[in-house]
Design brief:
The structure holds 2 protein chains of 2 kinds.
Chain A lengths: L15 H8 L3 H11 L5 H24 L18 H11 L4
Chain B lengths: L2 E2 L1 H15 L3 E5 L15 H5 L4 E3 L4 H13 L3 E5 L10 H9 L1 H4 L9 E6 L14 H5 L5 E3 L4 H13 L4 E6 L8 E2 L13 E4 L4 E5 L2 H15 L4 E5 L2 E3 L3 H11 L2 E8 L4 H13 L8 E5 L10 H4 L3 H12 L1
Parallel strand pairs in B: 2-3, 2-4, 4-5, 5-7, 6-7, 10-11, 10-13, 13-14
Antiparallel strand pairs in B: 1-8, 6-12, 9-11
Helix pairs in contact in B: 1-7, 3-4, 8-12, 9-10
The chains are: A mainly alpha, B alpha/beta.
Chain lengths: 99, 324
């Protein structure tokens, strides 16, 4: 369990006891305990999956870093199959350096 | 050639497209066994079966959300929300989700979804049913907004909507559902989006409208003619895409323009049209652009709706002001 985002500060509104109590109900941990009890899960599998997910995230991050920066007029991309005339004109004016 | 009203035209469009394309399906509250609250989907479940004509729970967010998922999976859903005012319960699924899905997935997915929604006043329905909230969806780019005013356009625009690769909000004027009949041919045809049409020629002033307000403007133009004022009526047909070219050319031609809509005046789509005319044809205008809308108050009880909605009298009065 973590914060909502980097500007969040749960210490200002959350009772630490509530947090500790909620930790005992962490659904990811509960599912792991449940699967372990069924003999379907163990630490080795958990570690392997963690590595796999971490690598997948890392690949995705590198791909995103390596991608070309979006072009300014990409704000008009993929909104409609064919831009309505008014939006097409906004795009043309924008590319023209106008308003 | 067969004569159809809007209910029959919508039904016929659905039949044509479901016959032609097995991916096309209909879902919504009571669209199956009942045939829809206004009977627009009458007979479809018998013809195409309950797998393609699905009665849903009363849950607008789920109706639209399920349509989005079905579209991604390759179906072409036509969802019915019983009244446009009820889209409030499904708004997140329409604007933030459906309209944005192409962009959110960087073009990997698109949503070929049509949402049909009857709307508008004049039939003495209870609260929430009559709200003309079409402009709210202009602020959620990615969805097209279609507002037919007559049976021929209703069929052609609905087929165009179903075939459009992007989501379409298709608003049907409930006051006009059975108010008029006209020639609506059998067989599929489309009416293109973004093409306004001159419903009536006129020299002195242009009345700009969509959906049921077009019919109102036609009556106002008739009365104005008896007073010697020649009023054109421009039917926008679609708000997104907007036919700026025809709008501006027509306003410039008559030099006077009155925009009429059923939605509350403030921030209604009339404000967008007026601003567009200021930007594009200001120097061709002979008078300030005028607007006639509903008052900026909630849609009232049935006994008061005639006073709330724009009327022939209010349209004529606005025209007289621009003629001074």
């Amino acid at each position: 369990m973590s914060f909502h985002n980097t500007t969040d500060n749960p210490s200002r509104y959350e009772d630490p006891k509530e947090h500790e109590e909620a930790r005992t109900r962490d659904p990811i941990e509960r599912v792991q305990r449940y699967l372990t009890a069924l003999g379907l899960w163990d630490e080795k599998k958990a570690a392997a999956m963690t590595d796999e997910v971490r690598e997948e995230n890392e690949r995705a991050l590198q791909m995103a870093y390596a991608a070309d920066a979006p072009r300014p007029d990409d704000v008009f991309a993929n909104v409609y199959a064919t831009l309505p005339p008014r939006v097409a004109r906004q795009k043309a004016d924008f590319l023209d350096g106008g308003a | 050639m067969p004569q159809r009203n809007i209910v029959e035209a919508v039904n016929n469009a659905l039949v044509e497209e479901m016959e032609a394309d097995p991916r096309v399906m209909v879902l919504g509250l009571d669209v199956g066994k009942l045939g829809g609250v206004f009977r627009t989907t009458s007979g479809l479940v018998d013809r195409f079966g309950a797998d393609r004509v699905v009665d849903t729970p009363l849950a607008e967010a789920s109706i639209v959300g399920a349509s989005l998922g079905l579209a991604i999976a390759g179906m072409v859903p036509v969802a019915e929300i019983q009244f446009l005012g009820f889209t409030a319960q499904g708004f997140h699924q329409i604007g933030p989700q459906l309209a944005k899905y192409r962009q959110r997935s960087r073009g990997r997915y698109h949503c070929q979804v049509t949402i049909r929604a009857p709307f508008g006043g004049g039939i003495k329905s209870p609260e929430f049913h009559s709200d003309a909230v079409e402009a709210q969806f202009v602020q959620t780019p990615g969805i097209k907004i279609v507002m037919p005013s007559n049976p021929y356009d209703a069929k052609g625009l609905l087929i165009e909507a179903i075939r459009d690769p992007d989501p379409v909000l298709f608003c049907e004027p409930d006051r006009l559902y059975r108010a008029m009949r006209m020639e609506v041919p059998d067989g599929a045809y489309t009416v293109p989006f973004g093409k306004a049409v001159l419903a009536r020629e006129g020299e002195h002033v242009t009345l700009v409208a969509w959906s049921a307000a077009v019919e109102l403007c036609m009556r106002a133009a008739e009365q104005l003619a008896s007073e010697g004022v020649s009023a054109a009526v421009l039917d926008l047909r679609t708000l997104v895409p907007l036919d700026i070219e025809t709008l501006c050319a027509q306003a410039a031609k008559t030099g006077r323009c009155v925009i009429v809509h059923e939605a509350p005046l403030s921030a209604g789509f009339g404000a967008e049209i007026s601003a567009t005319l200021m930007e594009e044809v200001f120097y061709d205008l002979d008078a300030p652009v005028a607007r006639v809308g509903a008052f900026d108050v909630p849609f009232p009880a049935a006994s008061l709706e005639a006073y709330y909605l724009p009327s022939v009298e209010r349209v004529v009065a606005a025209v007289r002001r621009t003629m001074e």
